[in-house]
Amino acid sequence: MERYDAIVIGAGPAGSAAAIALAREKLSVLLVERGKTPGLKNVFGGRIYSYPLTKLVPDWRDDCPVERFVTKDCFAFMTQDQSLLVQFESPRLASGKAASFTALRSKFDSWLAQKAEGAGATLITEIRVDDLWMEGGRTKGIVAGSDRIGADVVIAADGVVSKFTQRAGLRGEMPPQMVSVGVKETIGLPPETIQDRFGVAENEGAAYVLAGQPSGFLHGGGFIYTNKDTVSLGLVVSSEEVSANKVEVHALQEKFKRHPTIARILRGGKVIEYSSHMIPELGVGTLRRPYADNFLAAGDAAGFLINNGYTFRGVDLAIASGMAAAETVKLAASRGDFSEVGLGAYSQILRREKVLTDLATFRKGSQYMANPRLYSLYPRLLCDIIERIYTMDGGGKKKAIETVLDEIKAKDVSLLAMLRDLMGGALTM
Ligand SMILES: Cc1cc2nc3c(=O)[nH]c(=O)nc-3n(C[C@H](O)[C@H](O)[C@H](O)COP(=O)(O)OP(=O)(O)OC[C@H]3O[C@@H](n4cnc5c(N)ncnc54)[C@H](O)[C@@H]3O)c2cc1C
Questions:
Q1: How far, in Å, is the centroid of ligand 1 from the Cα of 159?
Q2: Does domain 3-67+103-174+286-353 correspond to CATH entry 3.60.120.10?
């Protein structure tokens, strides 16, 4: 029977990172991917924070399929026809360890999986793992079709709806409030047009997070990332609110594209691709723990994602946790102990690598972000205040603070609730 030191399920960023690090330790690794090629069907907004890549592939800048280095971060509140944009630009956003870049997953995931192969891992594609091979409550390997393949340890890096973490007894059914749904379109535009419209130089890119109208004023938000000759535009919205409000995510995306601000920057663009995917909402706490006997979970499968309203981090945490899983396996192999106790070092390594600590920092943020006022009331309030401040119609002007108080009164906003929201944001985000 075929047997490996480790089997990794899923050649997304978490799985390939784990496979690279394991293969470098001269462990035999099988990386199994159901897609025709890694990343072909994988969906994300578009930005990757590079710090874990620098550790995993120090010379990544030589051949990584970077679209553009992000030098501009923008946050916008939007109503049906208004937008209030806060923009930050710095060359330092694109340099050194803190650099981040936009990417397309079909290219990026394939590149990372090739690095795993280059390091000595065996990659097989177009094979769906059907089940864990379990005996006496322990994971003995994987089941794919009629094949059983054995391993000392299985790393589940199969993404957000990981059936294997459930199978390994690390979580129950995923309730709807634990996931959001995301849609994304890739829209083709000439590079010079992207540079002009987004105010960036060649190779430089912009990242936008937009609150209010893009998610239909529901719990969620929109995003825009600039690639070389495409723009990635989409939105994320709570699955629970989508069903409660009986809205179609596709319809929200269409309205988002028709917003005057967005329609202007997309003018003449051609939709090249449409995709949708689920996203874990709660981050840490999704699993009871990310390991069991002969089993580890990494990336989205373990719920390692931070979406705190102004940053979206999944790929970096996936890579960092994949590397942490590999280090745990190496440690367990040196002790010959792949039991839950032997793999327990995973949590410490994840903390050392700041995966669990960053998740813990923003854990309460997900409760805060469930507040509906953030998506419906505040974008409208802020946009209306700014509109009134900048409007000169001869009707007489008030001081800015009076305008603010007028709008708060007109919208029947409780000052106490506003103060509580402000404090809540300051303390959790
Ligand atoms: C709309 C949207 C926008 C996002 N924007 C960003 C962003 O801008 N930046 C960011 O960092 N993150 C973003 N994310 C999150 C990010 O995409 C994920 O956190 C990241 O992809 C997690 O990587 P992963 O390797 O854990 O899982 P995945 O990327 O989901 O990879 C899992 C892999 O496992 C394979 N697989 C699944 N089941 C099986 C099976 N049974 N057998 C074999 N193979 C299997 C899949 O085909 C896939 O290749 C976004 C997500 C969405 C949905």
A1: 5
A2: no
pTM over 0.85: yes
Q: What is the Å distance from ligand 1's center to 12 Cα?
A: 6
Q: What is the pLDDT of residue 279?
A: 81
Q: 54 CA to middle of ligand 1, Å? A: 20
Common-topology check for domains 3-67+103-174+286-353 and 177-280: no
CA geometry: angle 159, 352, 342, nearest 5 deg: 70
pLDDT at 267: 97
Instruction: Give the C-alpha distances (Å, rounded to integers) separating 279 from 15, 161, 248, 304, 322.
Output: 17, 9, 17, 10, 18
Q: Which atom of ligand 1 is nearest to the CA of 35?
A: 47
pLDDT of residue 176: 65
Residue 11 has pLDDT above 70, yes or no: yes
Q: HSE of 425 in the Cβ direction (CA atoms, 13 Å)?
A: 12
Fold for 177-280, please state it. Answer: D-Amino Acid Oxidase; Chain A, domain 2 (3.30.9)
Separation of 166 CA from ligand 1 center, angstroms? 17
Is residue 87 predicted with pLDDT exceeding 50? yes
- Domain borders along the chain are 3-67+103-174+286-353, 177-280, 372-428
Q: Is the CB of 129 under 6 A from ligand 1?
A: yes
